[in-house]
Design brief:
This protein is mainly alpha-helical. Helices cover 58% and strands 5% of the residues. A hairpin with a 3-residue loop joins strand 6 and strand 7 (686-691). The longest helix has 30 residues, at 416-445.
C-alpha cells in the first residue's frame, strides 16, 4: 500500500533509535575512552620521538636533498607514527575533535615549525628584505617606491610597522623566526570554516585538513605579504561560502549519507511511490533507512540534473548581518589589494568562477573587486609598471612560455642530486591534483555535484596565461588550488556525505511543511535516525599510506633548498659587519651565475637601513682562480664597497648552477691572495673583501630610480569616474544582499548608470598605460 512519504518519515521519527554499541576500536567490551586514550598516547610518543633527537642535527652536513638528509631517523619515524595515529583517529566510530585537532596541530609543528627550532636564525633571504621594508616605513613614516617595487603595495609593511611600534620597537627577527609556524596554524581556522560548509563525512573533513597541511610545501609561508594575504584569501572564501552561497535550483540537500535526499522528498511522484513496508520491514531502523535511501537515490538519479549539491545550505542571516558580512569581505579585499599584486587577482577570478557556476549570491561582486584592483594598479602602483609595461604584461597569452619558465627554467642547470628534488616537487603537485581528480569522479558517481570545490581548484590555472611571475606562477597556481584540491583528494577515500547533514528545508518538509527557519523546522534537523558511520578499513589503510608518503615528501619538497635557504650565524654576522661600517654610500656585491637575472642573494639582506646599503650582483667565475672578474666589479663599485661570499651562496652555485664541488673554498683562497684585495671579515660561513684605495678616496653616492610621472591630462576624470563607480557598485551589492523588495528595484538602474562610468575608467586607465609606460 502506497502512502505519503510523511507518514513513513513520521513513523521513523517516533521510533527510538537502537542503543549504540560499546564504542571500541579493537577488543569487545572495551571502554569508550580506551581507544582515544591509546591513540593520544601513540601520538604523544610520535611527537616526542620526532622532537627529542633534533638537538643533534648538523645543518652543515646537508647534501643536495636538503634538510631530510640530516634529520635523525628517529625523527622521521616519529613523524610517521604521528601521521598513523591520526589515521587511527579516523578509524574511530565517531569523531573526536579534540584528539584529531591536537594531532593535526602536532603535525603542523613538525612539518612547518622544524626549522624554527633547529636553526638559530630566521631562514629564507626574502624574509629579511620584507622586515627591512617594514623597518623603513616604521622609521620614516612613508613608503619610497624608488627603493623597491614592493612599496607599491605597502599595506603589509605598514601593518607590521604599526605592530612593531605597539610592541616597543623590538627587532622583527624573532617574529620572522616563528612566522611560518604561526601562519600555518592560523590557516587551519579558515580551512576548517570552509570544510564545515561541505556535505562530507567527518573523516573526509579531517583528512582534507591533513592533506592541506602536508601539501602546503611551496614555501610561501615565510614572513611576507603573500603568506598574510593567503590567510585573508582563505578567510574571504570561508565567509562567502558560509553566508553567501546560492541555493541550487533543485536543492539536493542530503539528510545523511544513507538517508533520503531532499529532491526525493519534494517530488510528489516520488512520495507516492514509497511504500509503508519500506519503513516497517525487517532489519531495524538502520537497515530500513538504508533501504529507503536506496529507493530515493535511484529515483533521484532519473530526475533531470539529479546530482545532489556537494555543499550544505548557507547559514541563515538577517539583512543587517549580511550587510555587515559584506562590509567585512570588502575590507578583507581592500587589505589584500594594498598588500600584494597577485592575490587580489586570484580572488577576483575565484569570485567570478563562483558567480558563473551559480554558487554565490554575490553575482555582482567580481565586477566591484575587479574595479578596486584596476584602480589601485593604475593610480597607486604607477611606480611599479611605469617604464616596465612590457615586462609585466608581456606574458599575457603566452601559456607555453609561462609554464616552461616555471618548470624547465627551474630544472635547467641543476646538479643531479638537486634535480631529483625539483622533479619530486613536480611529482608532488601532480600527485595531489591527480588524487583530487579521482576524488571528484568518485563523488560524482555517488551522486554529488561538488561544483564549488571544482571551481576553486580550477580557476587558479587561468593565471598561467597571464604572466610567468618570475618563473613562480606554477607554484602560485598550486598554492591557490590546494584548499579545494585537498577536499577532493579526501573524497577519494571517504566519498560519503556523513551523518545528519540535512538541510533545514528537508527537515521542515518531513515535519509537516513548516516554514524554513521556524522553531519546528529547526527541531526537525535530525528527523531520520542515521546509522553509525561505517568504517572502510581499506580506505583508512590507503589514506594512512598516502599521508605518510606525503609527509616524507613534504620534507624533501619544502626543505630541499635548505642548504642555501638557511641563515648560518656567520652569514648574518658578516652582513652586520657591512652595516656597521657603512660609509654613507656602501655597495655590497654578492656572487651569482647570472647577474642580470638573479635578483635575490642567498643571504640576509636589506633588513635595515634600506637606503644606506646597495646590494648588487656580480658574476661568479666558474674557475675559482679567475678572481679578476670579481676584482674588476669591486673596483667599478668604488671606494667603500665590499664583495661577500657565503656558504649559502656557494651551495646555491653548486646545486642550482652545477659549479664544481669545493668551488667556494678554492675561490676564497684565491680571492685572499689577489693583489690589492684585503679580507676585512671572515669566519667559516662567510668572507668579506675590499680593495685598498688611496687615502681620501670618496665613495660614489648611491643612486635611486628617478621619480615617475604620475598623472596625465585625463587622470582627474578617471579618479572621479572611479570614485563614483565604486560607490554605485558597492551600493548595488549591499542592496542585493540586504535590501528590501522595493529597494531591489534600484539594482537595474544602478547597473545602467555604472556602465558609462566603467567605460570612462577603462579609457583613462588605457590612456595612462600608453602615456606613462
Amino acid at each position: 500500500m502506497s502512502v505519503h512519504l510523511r507518514t513513513a518519515s513520521t513513523q521513523l521519527r517516533t521510533r527510538p533509535a537502537p542503543a549504540a554499541p560499546a564504542r571500541r576500536l579493537g577488543g569487545r567490551g572495551a571502554p569508550g575512552w580506551a581507544a582515544p586514550a591509546g591513540i593520544a598516547a601513540l601520538a604523544a610518543g610520535g611527537a616526542a620521538l620526532f622532537a627529542l633527537p633534533l638537538r643533534h642535527v648538523r645543518l652543515d652536513k646537508m647534501n643536495a636533498f636538503g634538510l631530510i638528509s640530516v634529520l635523525p631517523r628517529a625523527s622521521l619515524a616519529g613523524l610517521a607514527v604521528l601521521v598513523l595515529a591520526f589515521a587511527l583517529g579516523l578509524g574511530l566510530r565517531r569523531a573526536r575533535p579534540l584528539l584529531l585537532g591536537a594531532i593535526l596541530v602536532a603535525v603542523v609543528v613538525c612539518l612547518h615549525g622544524v626549522t624554527s627550532f633547529i636553526e638559530a636564525q630566521p631562514r629564507f633571504p626574502t624574509a629579511y628584505q620584507i622586515a627591512g621594508f617594514s623597518e623603513y616605513i616604521g622609521r620614516t613614516g612613508h613608503a619610497e617606491v624608488a627603493l623597491g617595487a614592493y612599496f607599491s603595495w605597502p599595506g603589509f609593511f605598514a601593518l607590521v610597522a604599526f605592530g612593531q611600534k605597539l610592541a616597543g620597537g623590538h627587532s622583527l627577527l624573532g617574529v620572522v623566526q616563528f612566522w611560518p609556524l604561526a601562519i600555518n596554524l592560523a590557516y587551519l581556522v579558515p580551512v576548517w570554516l570552509i570544510l564545515r560548509n561541505l556535505r562530507a563525512s567527518w573523516r573526509a573533513r579531517w583528512l582534507a585538513a591533513l592533506v592541506f597541511t602536508a601539501g602546503l610545501w611551496v614555501g610561501q609561508d615565510y614572513f611576507s605579504p603573500q603568506s598574510f594575504d593567503y590567510l585573508l584569501y582563505l578567510l574571504f572564501i570561508a565567509i562567502a561560502l558560509t553566508w553567501f552561497r546560492a541555493r541550487p535550483a533543485r536543492a539536493g540537500a542530503a539528510l545523511s549519507e544513507p538517508a533520503l535526499s531532499e529532491p526525493a522528498l519534494a517530488e510528489p511522484a516520488l512520495a507516492g511511490a514509497v511504500r509503508l513496508d519500506d519503513a516497517a520491514g525487517r532489519g531495524g531502523p538502520a537497515r530500513r533507512a538504508r533501504r529507503l535511501a536506496g529507493r530515493g537515490r535511484a529515483a533521484l538519479a532519473r530526475l533531470p540534473g539529479g546530482l545532489e549539491p556537494g555543499e550544505l545550505p548557507p547559514r541563515p542571516a538577517g539583512r543587517g548581518e549580511r550587510a555587515v558580512l559584506l562590509t567585512v569581505l570588502l575590507a578583507i579585499f581592500a587589505a589584500i589589494t594594498v598588500s600584494h599584486q597577485l592575490t587580489p587577482i586570484m580572488l577576483v577570478v575565484a569570485a567570478a568562477g563562483l558567480a558563473l557556476a551559480r554558487r554565490t549570491t554575490l553575482t555582482g561582486l567580481p565586477v566591484l573587486l575587479a574595479v578596486i584592483v584596476i584602480c589601485w594598479l593604475s593610480f597607486a602602483a604607477t611606480g611599479y609598471w611605469s617604464g616596465h609595461l612590457a615586462d609585466i604584461f608581456g606574458g599575457i597569452g603566452h601559456l607555453g612560455g609561462n609554464v616552461s619558465a616555471g618548470v624547465g627554467g627551474r630544472l635547467a642547470g641543476a646538479s643531479p642530486g638537486h634535480e631529483m628534488v625539483l622533479y619530486l616537487r613536480v611529482a608532488f603537485a601532480v600527485g595531489v591534483l591527480g588524487l583530487a581528480a579521482a576524488g571528484l569522479l568518485r563523488r560524482r558517481r555517488r551522486g554529488f555535484d561538488d561544483r564549488v570545490a571544482l571551481v576553486l581548484a580550477c580557476v587558479p590555472f587561468i593565471s598561467l596565461g597571464l604572466q610567468s611571475y618570475g618563473g613562480e606562477i606554477l607554484l602560485r597556481v598550486y598554492l591557490f588550488a590546494l584548499p579545494a584540491a585537498s577536499v577532493l583528494a579526501a573524497y577519494l577515500f571517504f566519498p560519503g556525505a556523513g551523518r545528519r547533514q540535512q538541510a533545514p528545508e528537508a527537515a521542515a518538509g518531513l515535519a509537516g511543511g513548516q516554514a524554513p527557519g521556524s522553531k519546528s523546522a529547526r527541531a526537525g534537523r535530525a528527523v531520520l535516525p542515521a546509522p553509525p558511520a561505517r568504517r572502510s578499513w581499506p580506505a583508512l589503510l590507503a589514506a594512512a599510506v598516502v599521508m605518510v608518503a606525503m609527509s616524507a615528501g613534504f620534507l624533501v619538497a619544502r626543505y630541499g633548498n635548505e642548504a642555501y635557504e638557511q641563515t648560518p650565524r656567520g652569514v648574518l654576522a658578516a652582513t652586520d659587519y657591512v652595516y656597521a661600517h657603512d660609509q654613507g654610500g656602501t655597495r655590497l656585491l654578492w656572487l651569482t651565475q647570472l647577474p642580470p637575472v638573479d635578483v635575490t642573494p642567498e643571504m640576509p639582506w636589506q633588513y635595515r637601513d634600506l637606503e644606506k646599503v646597495d646590494f648588487a650582483s656580480a658574476k661568479a667565475p666558474e674557475n675559482p682562480a679567475d678572481t679578476g672578474i670579481v676584482v674588476s666589479a669591486l673596483r667599478d663599485a668604488g671606494p667603500g664597497s665590499y664583495v661577500i661570499t657565503t656558504t649559502t651562496q656557494e651551495a646555491y652555485l653548486h646545486q642550482v648552477a652545477s659549479y664544481p664541488s669545493g668551488w667556494g673554498q678554492a675561490f676564497r683562497e684565491h680571492m685572499s691572495a689577489a693583489p690589492g684585495v684585503r679580507t676585512v671579515f671572515a669566519n667559516r660561513d662567510a668572507a668579506v673583501y675590499a680593495l685598498d684605495w688611496p687615502r681620501g678616496a670618496e665613495p660614489k653616492p648611491l643612486t635611486t630610480e628617478a621619480g615617475v610621472r604620475w598623472g596625465t591630462g585625463w587622470t582627474p576624470y578617471g579618479l572621479v569616474a572611479a570614485g563614483l563607480l565604486l560607490i554605485l557598485l558597492a551600493a548595488r551589492e549591499f542592496i542585493r544582499v540586504s535590501g528590501t523588495a522595493p529597494a531591489r528595484r534600484l539594482i537595474r538602474p544602478l547597473t545602467l548608470v555604472s556602465l558609462p562610468l566603467l567605460v570612462v575608467l577603462v579609457a583613462v586607465v588605457a590612456e595612462r598605460f600608453i602615456v606613462l609606460s
